[in-house]
Specification:
The protein is an alpha/beta fold. It has one domain: P-loop containing nucleotide triphosphate hydrolases (Rossmann fold, 3-Layer(aba) Sandwich). It is 49% helix and 15% strand. The protein is built from nine helices and eight strands. It has a five-stranded parallel beta sheet with strand order 2-3-1-4-8, sandwiched between helices. Strands 6-5-7 form a three-stranded antiparallel beta sheet. α4 packs parallel to α5. The protein is globular, with a radius of gyration of 17 Å. The model has no long low-confidence stretch (mean pLDDT 93). It binds adenosine monophosphate. Adenosine monophosphate binds next to α2 and α3.
């Protein structure tokens, strides 16, 4: 089974991914997570991507498409989180899957009002060591208290700062939203009301992809 999670930044795709990947034995492929580890490792790809990412802009299609194609050929079922984000990427994904004799089974669209997204992103703290994220609170959370990760200090991603958030939202509207029609026309898309608790969003997804 191959699934795409589509939705604006902050709509909860990453949060749902670990549950979904485990439950349905899917390989979670988050392009944002892959790029952040490339940055940490100091690779050429990471250096190229970091400028775009810090500003809140999309990394160029050819870079992302090459990176995803390489990963797709090495795995079986995939849960795509943060890819595709442009029509070019969606078309390249169709080609790549067709070459591998695979198809997309579901596209889940995480629908959240924009005021809520801005609130979530500006309050978000991330772990440097793993993909976990938290909400800012008075008793600063640490990743260690919540998981097997040893990291004590959380940080605010450069692209979760106000200026970058506005650019990300605009890029989402201009470049990613057209994908909703692209997948609607292929009868692959289901709306998820993602302005709900984590458990309620999971429940909606389970009903759709239950096998
Ligand atoms: P995310 O963790 O999904 O919010 O992604 C963080 C950043 O990584 C994005 O703002 C982009 O700069 C970059 N990125 C992740 N996925 C893609 C993609 N499919 N196309 C272009 N840039 C991407």
């Amino acid at each position: 089974m191959n699934i795409i999670l589509l939705g604006p930044p902050g709509s909860g795709k990453g949060t749902q991914s670990s549950h979904l990947a485990k439950k349905y034995s899917l390989n979670h492929l988050s392009t944002g997570d892959v790029l952040r580890s490339e940055i940490v490792s100091g690779s050429k790809l990471g250096k190229e991507a970091s400028k775009y990412m810090n500003e809140g802009n999309l990394v160029p299609d050819e870079v992302i498409i090459g990176m995803v194609s390489q990963k797709l050929s090495a795995i079986d079922s995939v849960l795509l989180d943060g890819f595709p984000r442009t029509l070019n990427q969606a078309k390249a994904l169709d080609n790549e899957l067709s070459n591998l004799s695979k198809t997309i089974n579901h596209v889940l669209y995480f629908n959240v009002p924009s005021e809520e997204l801005i609130q979530r992103l500006s309050q978000r703290l991330s772990c440097r060591n793993c993909p976990n994220t938290f909400t800012k609170s008075e008793n600063n959370p640490s990743c260690k208290s919540d998981s097997s990760c040893e990291e004590q200090e959380l940080y605010q991603r450069e692209d979760d700062k106000p200026e970058a958030i506005s650019i990300r939202m605009k890029n989402y509207t201009d470049l990613t939203e057209p994908l909703l029609n692209f997948y609607k026309e292929k009868n692959l898309m289901t709306n998820i009301d993602a302005n709900k608790s984590i458990a309620e969003v999971s429940e909606q997804i389970d009903k759709i992809i239950h096998i």
